[in-house]
Specification:
This protein has 271 residues and is an all-alpha fold. 72% of the residues lie in helices and 1% in strands. The chain has a two-stranded antiparallel sheet.
């Protein structure tokens, strides 16, 4: 009598589940536990009180949000026109995309930042906020470019052609057709840049000074220098909540399907 064997594909997911449990879930649980534990080991909210009552934490948090928002905006302003050109280019755009954005990412992160820092010193920029912004844009620009480029290449060109046939000029077609259809890529790019920049601190350590410290530098110092794990965990928990809210907002903004209105001609312009 033959034994019936059933294929269980979830077995192949077990290594991923174990890795996530060890290196994602377990650290998050530790952060959550230490955030509510005082120096004497008792349950307390003092760590969160120190986070919100110390003015330097609020200033660092606002500065971090500002740097992340500015970096994201600059990446979007650079990436969207670049992706638009590459998506409509007659030459081998895949080779250009690889040479400009993918292959440099294969280099060691430290080597890339040191090379950029040396170049900025030659240009007379040195260390400071401008150097940090340039370093952030340099490092995270591909994460904005690739999702926008993917959406533009997958876009149905018949919409733009119909808009042109109905009398719309290039600007009107871009504003009313191309830009709304690429909203998903824009939202994905903003999310993929804003969140890691918001929690990053390695670039500020390498290219900035004490005046350019962000919230990540403060958390690193609380864990490694002063050994105040409770306050560091509470600040990390606040950072996690803000990142989660960013993900939630981006999913709400980019989750809906784009509605297309019929294009009509009125006064020589498409609407």
């Amino acid at each position: 009598m033959k034994r019936s064997s059933t294929f269980k594909p979830f077995v192949f997911a077990l290594p991923y589940v174990v890795i996530c449990a060890l290196f994602v879930v377990f650290p998050l649980v530790l952060v959550l536990v230490y955030a509510f534990v005082g120096e004497d080991g008792s349950f307390t909210f003092d760590n969160f009180r120190l986070v919100f009552t110390e003015s330097s934490n609020v200033v660092l948090l606002l500065k971090t949000i500002g740097i992340a928002a500015l970096t994201t905006a600059i990446c979007l302003l650079i990436a969207y026109p670049t992706a638009l050109i590459l998506a409509s280019a007659p030459f081998n755009r895949y080779v250009i995309l690889a040479l400009l954005f993918i292959i440099p990412m294969w280099m060691n992160f430290v080597l890339r930042i040191i090379a950029l820092k040396s170049l900025l010193y030659v240009l007379g920029i040195g260390e400071g906020l401008l150097a940090v912004i340039i370093g952030m844009v340099y490092d995270f620009l591909p994460f904005m470019l690739l999702p926008i480029y993917t959406v533009l290449t997958d876009m149905d060109k018949s919409y733009a052609e119909a808009s042109a046939d109905l009398g719309a000029n290039g600007f009107t077609t871009f504003v009313k057709v191309t830009l709304p259809l690429s909203k998903g890529g824009i939202v994905s790019g903003i999310t993929m840049v804003f969140m890691p920049v918001f929690s990053a601190y390695a670039i500020t350590n390498m290219m900035g000074n004490t005046g350019t410290n962000v919230i990540g530098n403060k958390i690193n110092g609380l864990f490694t220098t002063t050994s105040t794990w409770g306050v560091g965990s509470a600040l990390s928990f606040v950072l996690l909540v803000l990142v989660f809210l960013t993900m939630l907002i981006s999913s709400l903004v980019g989750g809906g399907e784009t509605k297309h209105r019929p294009v009509t001609i009125k006064g020589g312009d498409a609407q």
